[in-house]
Structure formats: C-alpha cells, structure tokens
Write a structure and sequence with these properties.
Mean pLDDT: 94
Oligomer: single chain
Number of strands: 20
Largest sheet: 9 strands, antiparallel
Number of helices: 13
Low-confidence stretches: none
Helix content: 25-40%
C-alpha cells in the first residue's frame, strides 16, 4: 500500500490531537529526522490548528550522528555546552508538549566504538536527567514513527527500497489503527478502554510477586511495590488535566517493580536496538535484584556497558504485559525499533522506573520515589521476553496465586 497524503494527514492529526493532545496556548517541541521534513510540516500545521502557541523543531540526522562519533573526540561529544543546557532549562519553564517521530536506521551507528558511545551517552544523560525529572507529570508527550528507507530495508532486506518502504508504512498504519472501519480516534478510544479494563483487574488482584517461566530458559521472579498501580495506554498531565497517549502504538500494561528485588534468568526473544547498534540472542541473570551476568551472540560488550551506565542501570525499572496477539506481533516481522517491538510481547526494562505509578507519584521527589522502591537511573531500556509459551503467575501476600499469562497471552 502506498502512502497517501490523506493517510499522512490523518496520522499527523492523530499524533497531535489524540497522542500528544496539544492544548491551546501550549509550546510544542517536535523532534524529527531532517529526511521527514514534509511530515514535520504536517505535524507542525496540525499543532498550530490545535492552538499551539509555538512549535519548535529539533532536527535529527543519523548521518550527522555517525560522522560526529567517527571523527570527533569523546571529550568534545560528551560535554553539554551552555546553550544546550539553557534549552533544557527553558523546557522546565515552558513545559512543552514533546512529540518524537522515530525513523532512524537501526544500523546507523553500527561498527562504532561501543565504549565511546556509552561514555558520551552517560555523561550527556547525567546533565539532562535533572531537567527531565523536573517536568515529569507536568507535560504531555507522544512518541510515534514515520518509516524511512534505511529502516524499511532493514526490516525487508530482500525487497526493493520502494516496496520495503510501502510494506513498513502499511505495518505502521495498522498498528496505530489508521484506516480501520471506524475512524482512528474512535478506534483508539475503544482500544484504550480495553487496556483500562485489564489494568483495573490487575490492580484488584494486589499481587506482590510475579513468576515468569518459558521453555527457552526464562525462569524469573520479581517483587512488586504494594502501593504501585498497573497503568496502560494513557496518562494525565497533572498541570492541566489533559489526557494523552505517550506511545503510538501501545499495547502494554505496565508497572514499576520493587528495585533490587528479583531473581533468576530472563531470555530475550527479540534483538535490542541500542545506541544505533544491535544486541542479539541475549540473556540477563539477576541475583539479589541486580544483573550479575549476561550473554549475547552479538553486541555483548554493548550490553555490558549498558548495564553499568550507573548504579541503577543493572536493576529493573519496568514490568510490562503484552499478549502475543498484539497487532504489532501479528505483523510477523521484527521492527528493529523498541517502540514497536516492545508492544509485540511482554517485556522488562532496566534502569529508570516510573514514579507516577505510586499514589501522588508525580509530586514525589526522586529521593522520595526511590525510598518507596522506584529504581533511579539515567537509562530506561526495554527488552522483550514474551516467548510463545510464556507463563506468568501472580502471587498475593497471603501466598495464593492466580495465572496471569499462559502460552504467551492472558489466562482469562
């Protein structure tokens, strides 16, 4: 299916009006690849039609990033310049609606020094983190995607470029519910309602621990924070009450587990694209709540660097449930993009947890959230564990148990 202007316009409107839910008078910050300038104009116009006060563009370029890492020295790249930090500071004043349009090549930084990539990311993230923490719960944001030719060729290497791009767009369109029988906005309302029903059921069970088992070697237990809730699909900006959908697509129901309280082995079922490079056929073993060892057929050094980015990088920040019949999974191929692949099946994330899952969590300081069990880190990296035969069992405080997933999907 070719990309029509009508579908692109509908997509831009869906991202702005339903995903980010831009309100009159708000500043919008759009991050998008330079190659997507035509779609950037559509999103920008839609934001202004929604009443945006100003739309600021942050242009991205895989090619430029690769050249920077290839030729510039590590110290130069790692330093956050005063004008860059001032932009972050201004963000805490404007509280912009942030829209991210992903289209990067999964192999954009392949072959570059993983240690250099990790060190640069570590230092720059440490500077940005206090500013990101300062706007948590106080603004809307949405991550969506727009296919690019390099990304499409990665997903469909045996197809001509034009056909690959068309195939990837068709998959993106279906996973974000563009072109369904009802209009996309109505389809999303129905979808988020279903996710909300499952979230409510999980919250009513009051599980204290989950057990994961599958024939590929996953055998894992993780403790939950008693007062933390399961969330899904949408969030609410506490400053203005605007309801927004952070990820498009989204199929997950998630919470943050008790930091430092998990045991066992998790085997990934999909490659992880991290820092523009791939980590494939990997597993992570946890003891006393921390990743103590890992293995990978490809990208082992990168995985090890990731798990040592800071004190919290080796602990879990998220537990997410996604049934295998997810529209993303039904597409039948690997997207090589975490936004999509994490919505294909159950996953975990190492690194930063979500303080908003706690009562009045958005008003807690990082220290207060950490004291209640939320992990803190400069990273948050999802990896997929949802095998076809995955079994998840929930245990309550009294020892009673309930099957949650069987054979990769909801038990009930």
């Amino acid at each position: 299916m070719q990309i029509s202007k009508e579908q692109l316009s509908e997509y831009a409107r869906l991202i702005v009006r339903t995903g980010a839910n831009v309100q009159p008078g708000q500043v919008v910050q759009l991050s998008i690849a330079v190659e997507q300038h035509e779609f950037a104009a559509m999103v920008t116009e839609e934001a202004y039609l929604a009443g945006a006060k100003k739309v600021n563009l942050n242009w991205l370029s895989d090619g430029q990033d690769r050249l920077h890492y290839r030729y510039a020295d590590e110290e130069t790249l790692a330093v956050t310049l005063p004008w860059e930090e001032e932009k972050l500071r201004q963000m805490t004043k404007d509280l912009p609606v942030r829209i991210f349009i992903e289209s990067e090549d999964p192999d954009a930084l392949a072959g570059l020094d993983p240690e250099k990539l990790s060190h640069v990311r570590q230092r720059r993230s440490a500077v940005a983190k206090p500013y990101r923490d300062a706007i948590d719960g106080k603004h809307q944001w949405c991550i969506a995607a727009m296919p690019s030719e390099p990304w499409a060729k990665k997903c469909f290497p045996d197809k001509p470029a034009e056909e690959a791009l068309s195939l990837l767009w068709d998959a993106v369109r279906r996973t974000v519910r563009i072109g369904e029988k009802s209009d996309a906005v109505a389809a999303w309302k129905e979808h988020t309602s279903r996710i909300s029903e499952k979230s409510t059921w999980l919250n009513n069970q009051h599980f204290r621990m989950l057990r994961y088992e599958s024939s590929n070697g996953t055998d894992f237990t993780v403790e939950l924070i008693p007062e933390a809730s399961w969330e899904g699909a949408g969030s609410t900006n506490q400053e203005n009450g605007a309801y927004y959908i952070p990820n498009m697509p989204t199929e997950e129901i998630f919470t943050s587990p008790m930091a430092g309280k998990c045991e066992g082995k998790l085997v990934a079922v999909k490659p992880l694209s991290y820092n523009g490079q791939l980590i494939e056929d990997f597993s992570i073993t946890f003891e006393n709540g921390r990743a103590v060892s890992c293995s990978a057929a490809k990208g082992l050094e990168l995985l090890e660097k990731m798990l040592h980015m800071d004190e919290g990088a080796c602990m879990l920040g998220e537990v997410a449930l996604v049934p295998k019949e997810s529209p993303v999974n039904r597409c039948g191929f690997l997207f090589y993009n975490t936004l999509f692949d994490e919505n294909a099946c159950c996953h975990f994330a190492v690194g930063q947890g979500f303080k908003e899952v706690l009562p009045d969590g958005d008003n807690l300081t990082t220290e207060e959230a950490t004291a209640k069990g939320i992990n803190d880190s400069i990273i948050h990296v999802d990896f997929m564990v949802g095998a076809e035969d995955l079994s998840i069992t929930g245990f309550r405080a009294d020892g009673s148990s309930v099957p949650i997933f069987r054979n990769g999907t909801w038990a009930e």
